[in-house]
Amino acid sequence: MEATGTEEVDKLKTKFISAWNNMKYSWVLKTKTYFSRNSPVLLLGKCYHFKCEDENKLLHTRSGCTIEDHVIAGNVEEFRKDFISRIWLTYREEFPSIEGSALTTDCGWGCTLRTGQMLLAQGLILHFLGRGKSNLCILGFCLFNLNFSLQTA
After folding, report:
1. pLDDT tens profile 12-29
2. What contacts 24+ positions apart, CB below 8 Å, involve 108-112?
3. Which among 6, 14, 59, 122 would be 20 to 30 A from 50, CA to CA?
4. Residue 141 CB burial class (10 angstroms; 0-12, 13-18, ≥19)
5. In angstroms, what is the C-alpha Rg of the chain?
């Protein structure tokens, strides 16, 4: 089927908007994050405090975290491992256009969907596998259970 002039304009418009959103939202990201060693960092209910040297010392912070309440004291590497083990979903592109539009990417409007998907996926992993599982363990779990997943044609 031959594309009409209006369809070509819509496709070009969609590509331009996608490129604009990529520049607007992707190129302004900082590549390095700095944390204050004086404040705790909370990641999914686990409190990391990089300043505390003595793990036996009870540490009270403004956030209400204490060593007894899952605080990991003075270990940046443990925080890094925990942080990079989280599920991260990003923009999709070049999928079949949504009926009634020329959109073939979710750049600029799919953030809410991805956030919900990441929350759901992380919640399921925590529920079924627990917190300490690595990405390889999760991948193995997914591959093992692949035959039991819902498939659509």
Report:
1. 887 777 777 766 666 555
2. 108/17, 108/18, 108/20, 108/21, 108/25
3. 122
4. middle
5. 22
